[in-house]
Amino acid sequence: MAKMDQINTRILQALSRDGRLSNIELAEQVGLSPSACLRRVQELERSGVIRGYRAVLDRAALGAGFVTYVTVGLSDHTKAAQEDFERAMNLCPEVRECHNITGTVEYLLRVEAADLAAYKLFHTEKLGVQPQVRQITTHVVMGSPKDERA
Predict the structure, then answer these.
(1) pTM
(2) Backbone phi, psi, residue 13, to 5°
(3) pLDDT exceeding 90 applies to what percent of the chain?
(4) Sign of CA dihedral 73, 78, 80, 83
(5) Into which CATH architecture does domain 66-140 fall?
(6) Burial class of residue 47, CB neighbours in 10 A (0-12, 13-18, 19+)
(7) For the domain bounded by 6-46, which CATH number is listed?
(8) pLDDT band at 150 (very low <50, low <70, confident <90, very high)
């Protein structure tokens, strides 16, 4: 694993803000020579601290601006039921994130759809028909004043 010192922390912060920085721009921002900066970035990638680079998309511009968080409780708590549910959610393009969580329900989903009608179709035709689903609670996102996901 890469050593996490102040310089590596600054590299990660800069790349989190703008993953398209050139090595020269990044080196200037963190106070390193370009060759030293490149070595550090490569080590962060090799060690798995940096797992990849992504474009930040405007979901509304892509027609998927209706965002909900959905909690899902299962009626069957077996490993097989969880695997079946996870496999089904992986096949749903509307499900952008699926998290197995602790508490009174088993899953938290981030769902993006074009509009309420499209979400309702997902809710009734894909999520609601899963045999292991016992409870569904939908939380509609009204706004996101802070969202640091890539």
Answers:
(1) 0.81
(2) -65, -45
(3) 87
(4) positive
(5) 2-Layer Sandwich (3.30)
(6) exposed
(7) 1.10.10.10
(8) low
Residue with tokens 């992986």: 90
| HSE-up (13 A, CA, CB side) for residue 14 | 20
Give the CB-side neighbour count of residue 52, counting CA atoms within 13 A: 4
Angle between helices 23-30 and 34-46 (to 10 degrees): 100
Q: How far apart are CA 105 and CA 4, in angstroms?
A: 35
Q: How far apart are CA 55 and CA 71, in angstroms?
A: 27
Q: How far, in Å, CA of 149 to CA of 119, rounded?
A: 22
77 Cβ neighbours under 8 A, 6+ residues apart: 106
CB 48 within 8 A of CB 23: no
Amino acid at 105: V
Same fold, 6-46 and 66-140: no
Domain boundaries, the chain: 6-46, 66-140
